[in-house]
Design brief:
alpha+beta, Ribosomal protein L11, N-terminal domain, Arc Repressor Mutant, subunit A, three-stranded antiparallel sheet, two-stranded parallel sheet, 14% strand, Large ribosomal subunit protein uL11m, Ribosomal_uL11_C
């Protein structure tokens, strides 16, 4: 994630204090919606329809609410239809893992954390992500230094290496090589799943 993009998210998140309340779980729809991009199309439309929520009303309300956040961020969202048919919407910022992978330029973490490096981020990335997380009501009791430590721990848990600086060209080459490794891992995983399926079928015949 480019530094400017991270700052844009920070700017949009500064006033964000929307966290889920302790309301009864049965009356709340939990889902993930891209900021500023709620649409009536599946899967969101049918989910709202089952709850009796007016879809166009929700989309407008959600998109207006998240208009100051970088567009397209996957926001964990909680939706409740009140007795007067109005909608109560609460949302949080994306997970720490999402920001870490975005900063590292990868789609997912390591298959075997501790045994491989899935990507790299800088201390500057850690600081900027910490600022985003600090703006959430759930982490306002922690100081920035402690949040940075937690984020570094999260980075290590998904196979990210935290460094002081990154050479753009060297890291670009690293990502190219890493993509080959991921493709090999994916192919091997598919072969293992298929082999397990065949073994199960053979066992059922006996």
């Amino acid at each position: 994630m480019a530094r400017g993009k991270v700052k844009a998210v920070v700017k949009g998140a500064k006033n964000l204090k929307n966290v889920v309340s302790g309301e009864a779980s049965g009356s709340i729809l939990r889902t993930t919606i891209p900021s500023g991009k709620a649409t009536p199309s599946p899967p969101l439309g049918p989910q709202l329809g089952k709850k009796g929520i007016q879809i166009s009303q929700f989309c407008k309300q959600f998109n207006d609410m998240t208009g100051n956040i970088k567009e397209g961020l996957p926001l964990p969202t909680w939706i409740k239809l009140k007795a007067d048919r109005s909608i109560d919407i609460k949302h949080a910022m994306p997970t720490t893992s999402y920001f870490l992978c975005s900063a590292a330029g990868i789609s997912k973490g390591a298959l075997s954390p501790g045994e491989e490096i899935a990507g790299k981020i800088t201390l500057r990335h850690v600081y900027e992500i910490a600022k985003i997380k600090q703006s959430e009501g759930t982490m306002d009791r922690f100081n920035l230094q402690n949040i940075c430590k937690m984020i570094i721990g999260s980075a290590h848990s998904i196979g990210l290496q935290v460094v002081k600086d990154l050479d753009p060209e060297e890291y670009r080459q690293f990502l190219i090589e890493r993509e080959k490794v991921v493709e090999e891992q994916t192919l091997k995983r598919q072969e293992e799943v298929e082999a397990k399926y065949l073994r199960t079928k053979e066992a059922e015949k006996k």
